[in-house]
Design a protein that fits this description.
With 361 residues, this protein is α+β, with helices and mostly antiparallel strands. Among the domains are: 6-159, no CATH class; 294-353, no CATH class. It has five helices and eight strands.
């Protein structure tokens, strides 16, 4: 018979150790189920890292002790609301513990290459096997779940402490709102009663005022009747005065018409006189001639030999004729050397005679 394989004995010991962990966890789940609570909320019932203390067999030195190894101390967990304010530590297990409803990161060191410690990794594997999504309270570095993630139906709602406070605050708010509403309703009823009372009082005052107004109206009607009769007399009197004024106005109109006819005849006579004057002016225009002086056009009045502006007729100079040569010279009012000019003559007859000879200028 061949001797037993050392590896086979080791596997048997590991299987036994695993069975003790499974049994412990099953007992913890049974307690949680019996208490109708989440296993994470059972502080101190976590699976210890050293299960050999639950081995009913007597301890032996040698191979078993070597397989068991040295006992590692389990970090002690104590619930503390302040732990919920600590930042996420990437060196520790990512699991979010219940911590009396405030939540906190697990204080165990996570396994190498994993995000969870040995305890919560086993919990996670069991949750996945049972159809759950994740650890009941989720991960500390992720959004806090409102419902249990370990159960497929996720019907269990986590009563987080801050949510309780919010609910309590809401209850107080609802209570205060109800009290305020009751107060408002009471005030509203009081206002309605006061409004009804005021309405009745108003109706009484309106009836009283209507009666008084009726008497006043009757009195005013009689007064108006008297005033109407008086107005009728005044109207007849005014009608007579109007007829009298109409006759007077008719006479005035006739006088005005006769006066207007006289004025129109006078205006006709004045127009005829103006036309005669215009005819005389037209005859005088034959004595006017347009000439050029230093690039400017001027009007030469041959009857007076004066030079006038083309636009406004203002006198700007005069023309003189040399007696010896018979040539015409323009003398402007702003010229300074007027004394040095040759003697000239402004005889209108001479200017008329020489107009033809000077037309080239």
């Amino acid at each position: 018979m061949a001797p037993p394989c050392p590896l086979q004995g080791r596997l048997t010991i590991e299987t036994h150790y695993k069975s003790m962990e499974t049994a412990y966890q099953a007992g913890m789940d049974a307690v949680a189920s019996h208490l109708k609570t989440d296993p994470e909320s059972l502080r101190g019932l976590e699976v210890p890292e050293d299960m050999w203390k639950f081995d009913p067999r007597p301890r032996k030195e040698g191979k078993v002790a070597a397989v068991r190894g040295e006992k590692k101390p389990t970090p002690k967990w104590e619930d503390d609301p302040e732990l919920a304010n600590l930042p996420f530590d990437p060196e520790l297990c990512n699991c979010r513990k219940w911590n009396k409803g405030f939540g906190a990161q697990c204080n165990r060191v996570k396994l190498e290459g994993e995000d969870l410690c040995a305890l919560h990794k086993k919990h996670y594997e069991r949750v996945i096997e049972n159809g759950g999504e994740d650890l009941s309270h989720g991960r500390y570095n992720q959004v806090r779940p409102t419902h249990c993630l370990a159960k497929p139906d996720q019907e269990h709602e986590h009563p987080w402490a801050d949510l309780k406070e919010e609910k309590a605050a809401k209850r107080e708010s609802d209570k205060a709102e109800k009290a305020l509403k009751d107060k408002e309703n009471k005030s509203k009823k009081e206002e309605e009663r006061s409004a009804k009372k005021a309405l009745k009082e108003k109706e009484r005052e309106e009836k009283k005022a209507a009666k008084k107004a009726s008497k006043e109206a009757e009195k005013e009607a009689k007064k108006a009747e008297k005033e109407a009769k008086k107005a009728e007399k005044e109207a007849k009197k005014a009608e007579k005065e109007a007829k009298k004024e109409a006759k007077k106005a008719e006479k005035e109109a006739k006088k005005a018409e006769e006066k207007q006819e006289v004025e129109e005849e006078k205006e006709v006579e004045e127009v005829e006189e103006v036309e005669e004057v215009d005819e005389d002016l037209k005859e005088d225009e034959s004595n006017l001639e347009e000439i050029s002086h230093n690039g400017f056009n001027l009007m030469w009045d041959k009857s007076s030999n004066l030079l006038k502006d083309m636009d406004d007729g203002e006198v700007v100079g005069r023309r003189v004729r040399d007696i010896e040569t018979g040539e015409w010279t323009n003398i402007m009012e702003d010229d300074e050397d007027t004394d040095e000019l040759p003697s000239s003559s402004s005889d209108s007859s001479d200017s008329s005679d020489s107009s033809d000879s000077d037309s080239d200028e």
